[in-house]
Amino acid sequence: MSTLYVLLLVVIVLGVWVGFNYWRLRRAAKVVENHAFAEKIHGGQVVDLREPAEYRKKHIMGARNIPAQQLKQSLAALRKDRPVLLYENDRGQLVMQAALLLKKNGYKDIYILSYGLNGWDGKVKMN
């Protein structure tokens, strides 16, 4: 019986943690579909959070590559008065952490491409 209680507690804690992270992300950024992302590209700053090798193979036209691991050191390269549009291959942990970092550093207009580059139907540059 005690094993059941422990398992139930683990499931509850895990559910609360997932819900909390979802809430934090929704406060930091807006997850948008292709058409909304495309509308914001003009006038926005598109940031590809993937590694440089992946970026060179294929990326959204107009995107700049700032790998997620280097974002903290590269904040000065992004303007706070313009929207920041983030993406990776899929919507995953890179964009979530990047959005939270940007929000913490005073960026207000942050957008995440739903389903990332894999779901993008706009223009791309391929090498």
TrEMBL record:
Which CDD domains does the entry link to? RHOD
What keywords sit in the KW lines?
A: Membrane, Transferase, Transmembrane, Transmembrane helix
Q: Where is the signal peptide?
A: none
Please tell me whether the keyword Transmembrane is annotated for this protein.
yes
Name one matching Pfam family.
Rhodanese
Membrane spanning residue stretches: 6-23
Against InterPro entries, the record matches this protein to:
GlpE_sulfurtransferase, Rhodanese-like_dom, Rhodanese-like_dom_sf
Q: Which GO terms describe its molecular function?
A: transferase activity
Q: Where is the Rhodanese domain?
A: 40-125
- Record protein name field: NADH dehydrogenase
| Gene that specifies this protein | yibN
